[in-house]
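Example complex used in Figure S2.
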Amino acid sequence: MKKYLSVAKNTWAETFTYRLNFVVWRFRVVLQLLTIYFLWFAITIKSDNIFGYGQAQILTYVLGTSLINSFVFASRTYGVGNEINEGSLSNYLVKPVNYFMYHFARDLGDKAVNVIFSIVELSILFAILRPPLFLQTNPVLLLLTIVSTLIALILYFFLNFLIGLVGFWSPEVWAPRFIFMIVITFFAGGLFPLDILPSKIFAVFKILPFTYLLYFPLKIYLGQLAMSDIIIGMFVSLSWLVCIYLVVKFVWMQGLKVYTAWGK
Amino acid sequence: MNIKKYFKVWQITTLSATQIAFASRFGALIFIVGKLLRFAFFLFFLVIIASRTKVVADYSLWQVIFFYATFNFIDTTAQFFLREVYRFRAYVVSGNFDYFLTRPISPLFRSLFGGSDILDTVMLALSVIFIAVSAAKIGNINLTGIFIYAVLVANALIIALAIHILVLCIGVLTTEIDNSIMLYRDLTQMGRVPIDIYREPVTFLITFVIPVGIMMTYPAKALMNMLAAQSIIIAFVIGGLFLAGSLKLWRLSLKNYTSVST
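Predicted assembly (526 residues):
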């Protein structure tokens, strides 16, 4: 376990190697948040209730998306495809490390940076903009929000890892990731709460794994889900987690059979 | 400046970039589909918001689509012609930028236009279709409006060019930042909707300091006859100032280039 802690620490340190670059990157994160925040602010300012959301709830959703995004979507697994293509995967295969655990530890290091800076940035934005926010006080819902976020974190890790495994069969690892990021941002509810969609489309979304990455934890936090919906949601997300884990394991084993380390 | 020679250089570099882009046809296809999906998803979002709430700064659905299509046209045209800027930092870090300086063509031209991105042509065509359809749906458009629209789009592209030159300057002056062009992309995203919807001082900042509004919102407003004459003049003044300023900074940054990577 100690070695994985070191990996997480190294990832943390890596992030600060190019400090100016880091500052620009964080500035971009804030800018992206402000763009969507101001858009929603403009939409909600003229109407107290929009799609069943009050202004405080929708703005909490937008800002909450940013925070959960930094926790769930921060990942270093984008390197998996390249490591396979370049043959550097061999370095890990011959070492006494679990490749999955190694990347999960890197993810945790990355997430720690993201979460800490997101909290600081959101606090500053809160002090400047003073948005009306919804504060959840029910400890059970807060606990369920944390649990669903942790499930989302692991689910996203395996989804992302799976995309990287394309590298076993194709040198084109960036293009699938590009489309994956576009699809996931939309389907996870990064642009808007998914339940504003027409009910038939939303019903389809509810059976997809992406819904449980951002939308579901935030809906629990906002207290807009009945306990039965939360239980069903937890069951669906855990089922997806198990399915995708098994698929990743299977694809990994198949990939190792065709892996030739030809980049080395 | 020999335009014929430079056109030839652009043709050759674009052909090479195209061959690279299609080296993996699967990858090229995925990229095109990804761009189309990105366009469609945000359009879908706008349609839902504008059609069901009527609150996007009092614009009609087709007007909102027209703003978005214009944004996409300007954004994609800049990306299509100026894709080489995204690769510039690698040239400086690897020392290959030195070769740009020793060749008998302008290093600025080579750094800006050295390989257009053919994958953007699909998005360009789609943007034009959406501009034409939404403009027809809006109606009440005259020839003067179309002319001012075209000129303001050209002005927007000049501002985009100037900002890309500034990105090159940052690349020459410091190799530490590798995502300054993405910062520009993030800023311009604010122009996907008419900038009137934002609050002050944001509207002021994205109109005059970082002229996203002048680039993305002004042309569409001019076509809809919603733009005052003085705003059009300000747009051209800012376009000219940005271009002159960026060219000056480019010369200055070249003087400070140390060729340290070579």
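Residues 139 and 224 of chain B are 9 Å apart (CA to CA). The interface with chain A takes residues 24, 26-28, 30-31, 33-34, 37-38, 41-42, 45, 48-49, 52-53, 55-57, 174, 176-180, 182-183, 186-187, 189-190, 193, 197-199, 202 of chain B (CB under 8 Å).
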